Amino acid sequence: MAASWTIKNLYFYLVCLVTLFLFVVGTISAVNNATQIAFPDRPNVSIIHLYYPEYRGENSEPAFDPPPLEELEKMRAEQEQMNHYYRSYAVRNLLNSIALMIIATPFYVYHWNRVKPRREKGEITNES
Q: Cα(81)–Cα(83) distance, rounded to whole angstroms?
């Protein structure tokens, strides 16, 4: 059994541990980013409902004068641009997470195959 705890095998175990950790972190991050894409956490309120409460079904008078239509259109365009930016950011993060999982997997498989005992070949026995 002492033959299995060499420096070389400890190195393989350490690499397996680190790559397994990277895979788990990549998986958690991928799920989080996929959730961010499907259910964004930024407010998605239509501008017309903010400035014209009568369209929401309320019959109260607005407390302020609404801005001109050009300004509303400019604000809507900025909101669409921000929505596009947030979505592309979440997609980039999702792809980074998937890449982390894809890169960590072959390293883990290779090192785990190098470290696991091969009883069929007789390299490690149960005798002490």
A: 5
